[in-house]
Amino acid sequence: MELKNCKKCGRAFAYKGIPVCGRCKSDDEDDFTKVKDYLYDYPGATIREVSDETGVNEKQILRYLKDSRIEIIEEGNFILDCERCEKSIRSGRFCDVCLSEMKKEFRSVIKPRTEQAKGKEKMYITDKLKRKEKR
Ligand SMILES: [Zn+2]
Ligand SMILES: [Zn+2]
Q1: Which of 47, 69, 72, 108 is the Cys-Cys partner for 64 at CB 3.0 to 4.6 Å?
Q2: Which is nearest to 82 in space by CA: 68, 96, 64?
Q3: 78: three-class secondary structure by DSSP
Q4: Mean pLDDT value of segment 57-67
Q5: Range of the domain at 73
Q6: Is 50 exposed, middle or buried (0-12, 13-18, 19+ CB in 10 A)?
Q7: pLDDT at res. 46
Q8: Which tens digits make up the pLDDT trace of 95-106?
């Protein structure tokens, strides 16, 4: 048996592949059920409302959303903001528009030899890449 400190409450517990102790894990599941039930009854509630009514703190509710654990969101709860443009989204961290834009941006970063990368910028980027290759 391996003893570890619980990530949530810090108490030592018998580690079985989950970083929190049994007590915190069941607390967490209770909280999750409360949040889910509340959203089921009141679709469209804000995080603050859910938090006030269920007693679960806002950070924790956000975590459920970001982990995409609350599926009920798909049915019309708009209580998250895109981290990039602050548009309301249903789950995750970014809206669809930002996601596809970020994908494009990401591609232009990994493929610098496009029309966009001209002159100095191009030289700078290819230079950087070369240096990386040498390592
Ligand atoms: Zn604990
Ligand atoms: Zn966005």
Answers
A1: 69
A2: 96
A3: coil
A4: 81
A5: 1-94
A6: buried
A7: 78
A8: 889 988 888 776
Instruction: Name the β-bridge partners of 88.
Output: 81
Nearest to 89 by CA among 99, 78, 100, 101: 78
Dihedral of alpha carbons 41, 42, 43, 45, sign: negative
Distance 47 CA to ligand 1 centre (A): 24
| pLDDT value for 103 | 81
Residue 121, pLDDT score: 47
54 plus 104 within the same structural domain: no
Q: How many CA atoms lie within 13 A of 52 on its CB side?
A: 5
Ligand 2: distance of its center to the CA of 96 in Å? Answer: 7
Q: How many domains does the chain have?
A: 2
| Residue 117 in tokens | 């990368």
Residues 99, 89, single domain; the answer is no
pLDDT, average across residues 44-55: 86
Same domain for 87 and 103?
Answer: no
Q: How far is the CA of 101 from the centre of ligand 2 (A)?
A: 9
